[in-house]
Design a protein that fits this description.
Elements lengths: L6 H8 L5 E8 H4 L3 H8 L5 E6 L5 E6 L9 E2 L5 E6 L2 E6 L7 E2 L7 E2 L3 E3 L7 E3 L9 H5 L7 E9 L14 H12 L11 E6 L6 H13 L18 E8 L6 E8 L13 H8 L7 E2 L25 E7 L8 H16 L4 E6 L1 H4 L1 H5 L8 H14 L6 E3 L11 H36 L1
Parallel strand pairs: 12-14, 12-16, 16-17, 17-18
Antiparallel strand pairs: 1-11, 2-3, 2-11, 3-5, 4-7, 5-6, 8-9, 9-10, 13-14, 13-15
Helix pairs in contact: 5-12, 6-12, 7-8
Length: about 450
């Protein structure tokens, strides 16, 4: 049972209520537009947010702290309010006579005074009569479209920290120093490779370029933006770029190269072409190759590397996904990601997920990034992406990229550096597997 209320809409509502999250209790298209179905799912549950949707695109409803019942009585609630969305903005209409805030009717869905009733009279319709106990403009609230396409009720649940973090992380400056030193001194176990290559793949705006900029910033000692990034509906990256991390300003290259690509888009013929990914992983694409979403790379293209060596190939694929958009990922985009994952799997390349914008997804983390592994909500999202992409939870790594900051933060640095360490560990396993395969072939030959 998936919520129709988007993650951003849920977050906007929750911002009015404190440190909370919404848990879907009732969905009329699943359980029925009847008072009996509504009361069976929602009675004695509180606080709640009730939401109606119509074919005109309006999303509207009400909040009450009081549990629903079938008593037929009015219930006092001085915190109750009605609302509607105007774009991403929430318009709020507080109760004017709290003693009549909610009425408990057994033949209807959520009943706010005499002003707004969802699933009225056991039907997919709205009763709307503003000005009794709530003041609102009907056209603004629901566009005077009183037919429901969906009705949902969510329980409001307080977000609390876990007693113990579910992953161990030491948040000290010493940790950052040790992680940086481990990366600086890293040497691939494969002698023919001096710098390992990591391919970043993800939807438009997920934070691929920002991840490179953020990791680079840690080693430069200041927030920097070498790779172009920003907010856009289409990919700002139009070329295949290889970025070598450097130790400080003008310092020597570090043993890792991050390869940036066009963002994935759900539309066919837009964004990164899946066939190009295979060419990238096999090492055929030159740096600054200009992507053409309508045509995959051809061996006769300028700069095509016909006989790439191991050092030219991709040694790990990192999917960069926005934590705020996991629950509302378009089906076609999810299908694309899974098609890519299957292709990469068949090539034996290690894969993991970089989970970005965790602070925007969870107020607990926004308050303090050290709460990342104490947040049950972030853990739920990571479990969701693990199931969605078919990767183990241990391969899902949360990060907070630098996007609006002027100065570095030691805790954000630790998350970013820990992600790089996990990438290097997966590459070590990959090289070990290659070595074992080579030994097995040599044994058979002799």
């Amino acid at each position: 049972m998936n919520p129709q209320l988007t993650v951003n809409q849920q977050r906007t509502i929750c911002s009015q209520l404190g440190r909370v999250k919404l848990q879907l209790l009732y969905k009329a298209s699943v359980h029925g537009y009847t008072g009996a179905a509504f009361h069976q799912r929602c009675d004695n549950r509180s606080p709640t947010v009730s939401v109606g949707y119509n074919a005109s695109g309006f999303v509207f409803g009400g909040y009450t702290q009081q549990p629903f019942s079938k008593t037929g009585q009015y219930v006092h609630d001085d915190q109750a309010f009605l609302f509607t969305f105007s774009g991403e903005k929430l318009l709020k209409y507080p109760v004017t006579q709290p003693v009549y805030a909610v009425k408990m009717i057994n033949t209807s869905g959520p009943y706010f005074g005499e002003d707004l009733v969802l699933a009225n009279g056991n039907k997919p319709v709205v009763h709307s009569s503003p000005g009794n106990y709530y003041n609102f403009n009907a056209a603004e609230m629901h566009g005077n479209d009183l037919s429901l396409t969906e009705c949902e009720v969510y329980q409001v649940e307080e977000i609390t920290e876990l007693e113990r973090p579910w992953r161990t992380m030491i948040w000290e400056s010493k940790t950052r120093t040790e992680l940086m030193e481990s990366i600086k001194t890293y040497k691939p176990t494969e002698s023919s490779v001096s710098q390992v290559r990591v391919l970043l793949i993800g939807p438009v705006g997920a934070g691929k370029s920002s991840f490179f900029n953020s990791v680079s910033s840690v080693f430069r000692g200041r927030v920097s933006s070498q790779a172009m990034c920003g907010s856009s509906d289409t990919s700002l990256t139009t070329q295949f770029r290889t970025y070598s991390l450097k130790d400080g300003r003008g310092g020597k290259p570090l043993p890792i190269i991050l390869c940036d690509t066009m963002g994935l888009e759900e539309r066919n013929g837009a964004g990164l072409d899946i066939d190009d990914i295979s060419s990238i992983v096999k090492g055929h694409l030159p740096d600054r190759y200009q992507f053409n979403p309508s045509a995959a790379l051809h061996p006769e293209n300028h700069g095509y590397l016909k006989s790439p060596k191991l050092k030219d190939k991709i040694h790990c694929v990192a999917y960069v996904l926005d934590a705020c958009k996991i629950s509302i990922m378009p089906e076609k985009l999810e299908e694309k990601l899974n098609a890519i994952r299957r292709k990469i799997n068949s090539m034996g390349i290690p894969q993991l997920v970089l989970f970005t914008k965790v602070d925007e997804a969870c107020s607990l983390v926004k308050e303090d990034v050290r709460n990342i592994y104490k947040s049950p909500y972030i853990k739920e999202l990571m479990q969701e992406v693990s199931a969605c992409l078919g990767v183990p939870l241990s391969s899902v790594v949360p990060v907070k990229n630098y996007s609006e900051e002027f100065e570095l933060d030691v805790n954000c640095d630790i998350l970013l550096l820990s992600a790089v360490i996990q990438i290097l560990r997966s590459i070590d396993d990959y090289f070990d597997d290659l070595s074992d395969q080579l030994s097995s072939v040599e044994t058979k030959l002799f």
